[in-house]
Design brief:
The protein is an alpha/beta fold. Strands 1, 2, 3, 4, 5, 6, 7, 8, 9, 10, 11, 12 and 13 form a 13-stranded mixed β-sheet that branches. The structure holds S-adenosylmethionine. S-adenosylmethionine (SAM) binds next to strand 3, strand 5 and helix 11.
């Protein structure tokens, strides 16, 4: 097991496979972003080696993210390499869903168990505006394909004031009446160059619950209001699915955090909203052995920060969300 100095057992690694994305969501990345050269990114064998080392440290849950993980070459092989590593119990992916129509089945056969698919609105025009060019039909087809392939499905919507905080949120919540999905509403977090927009347009969980319950009836807490991972869970009456609210900024869940993040360029990031990172790519390319690599990671985890410092005005500045993976 791998404990930090606050006694938290850190056992969940989110791996960003690439900083590239086939969309440019306005709250996530600037349109003119320059991507890193391939040689600066972790190569497939380096990722699989790190997964082996992390499992020896007690990590059991792995999530692939990005950028957009499905645009990474060899994605199916990377997934099967991870799922066949002893000690890996849960294998999930966060994706915009655009390529799931083709990839759901091969990914499921490679051992992927769950997908979190980002969908901020069901309105085609608004979807195009927020993603700068995306087609909602592609996401909906991706969701169907994931369902047909037997993947577990959660949907993620980042809520932005005056964009999707009213009827769009209600339309998304309504999906759970029929479908067994978890529809999660994510509070927008501030990062680097886009932080002013993000901070100005946050919508609180209480406000969202009010909007949804006015339209669709009361929400009942699930699990006595306990968090499911990072989400506070509710259910509409007679719904097949659930609603989750992830309020990382206003109601942080740092005490229960079990995560570490690996950026596409091989930095171990200990808190999403803090810039502290430990370079793993350099020692790997300098030729350290597995014992030395394990010690570097163990030490980094020990120093994991307690939580974000947004209230003290500390905003992550070195990377935008698309470079970390969420
Ligand atoms: N491309 C994939 C996707 O669209 O899901 C994976 C990467 S994306 C960075 C992961 C998640 O982070 C998405 O659900 C996205 O909406 C969310 N996200 C991006 N920027 C955010 C921000 N500033 N605050 C909160 N969530 C954000």
């Amino acid at each position: 097991m791998s404990f930090d100095r606050f006694g938290r057992d850190i056992n969940y690694l989110r791996i960003s496979l690439t900083d590239k994305c086939n969309l440019r969501c306005v709250y996530c990345m600037p349109e003119d972003i320059t991507f890193r050269p391939r040689a600066e990114l972790l190569q497939d064998d380096e990722i699989l080696r790190l997964v082996r080392v992390f499992t020896k440290l007690g990590f059991e849950k792995f999530r692939l993210t990005g950028g957009e993980p499905t645009v990474r070459a060899n994605i199916v092989n990377i997934v099967s390499g991870i799922t066949s590593t002893p000690g890996v119990k849960i294998m999930a992916m966060t994706t915009n869903g655009l390529l799931l129509k083709e990839l759901s089945r091969p990914l499921a056969e490679a051992g992927l168990q769950r997908v979190n698919i980002s969908i901020d609105t069901l309105n085609p025009e608004k979807f195009k505006t927020v993603t700068r060019w995306g087609k909602i039909e592609d996401v909906l087809e991706g969701i169907d394909a994931a369902q047909d392939a037997g993947l577990g499905i959660k949907l993620n919507a980042v809520v932005i004031r005056d964009y999707n905080d009213k009827e769009d949120v209600v339309d998304l919540a309504r999906l759970t009446l029929e479908q067994p999905w978890q529809m999660r509403f994510i509070e927008m977090m501030p990062f680097g160059s886009v932080s002013e927009f993000q901070r100005a347009n946050v919508v609180s969980e209480d406000e969202l619950i009010g909007t949804i319950s006015d339209a669709l009836g009361p929400l009942t807490p699930v699990n006595g209001g306990k968090l499911d991972g990072e989400a506070r869970m509710f259910k509409l009456s007679a719904a097949n699915g659930t609603l989750g609210f992830i309020s990382s900024v206003s109601k942080p869940f740092c005490a229960g955090c079990t995560r570490a993040r690996l950026t596409a360029d091989g930095r171990l990031r200990l808190c999403l909203l803090r810039d502290m990172e430990v370079n793993l790519l350099k020692p790997i390319r300098d030729g350290v052995d597995d014992d030395e690599l394990t010690e570097i990671i163990r030490e980094a985890i020990w120093w994991k920060p307690w939580g974000h410092g947004l209230e003290q005005g500390v905003i992550p500045l070195t990377r935008v969300m698309s470079e970390i993976g969420g």
